[in-house]
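Subject: for your reference before the review

Hello V.,

The reviewers asked for a structural picture of the protein, and I figured it would be easier to keep everything in one thread rather than splitting it across files. Below is the amino acid sequence we used in the manuscript, unchanged from the supplementary table.
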Amino acid sequence: MCPAERSAVQSAKMTKLLTPVLQLTEFPAGLWHTLVRKLAHMAEFALLGAFRMAALSVWERDSHLSQGRRSVTALCICLLTALADEAIQLFVPGRSSQVTDMWIDALGAAIGFGAALLFGRKKRRMG
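And here is what came back from the structure prediction:
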């Protein structure tokens, strides 16, 4: 929801903070800013995916929905959120909507709810 200029400043601050780590990679310095922005998208949606999966698991624990249906529901909610996020950017000065960002968001969500599933299984085995 930030205008492009403010978003770029925030990303530049994070890139500067991560520069010692980024220098260890083979990525050219010119790509660091883009890498940080895309990883931020992925991280946000990984958290959303994990929280959504956890919420659906708790909420639907007593229902007869399979784990697969809960996973599909969680992913669909995350995809709709990514679509809404990209649509909102169409109305923010200097921003645009990108299909690639939706795919990055979807990958992040899948990683997040996959991690939540694994954590839930491990917790059930221990408890």
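For the response letter, the relevant points are probably these. The radius of gyration is 17 Å. The longest helix spans residues 29-59.

Happy to draft the paragraph if you're swamped.

O.
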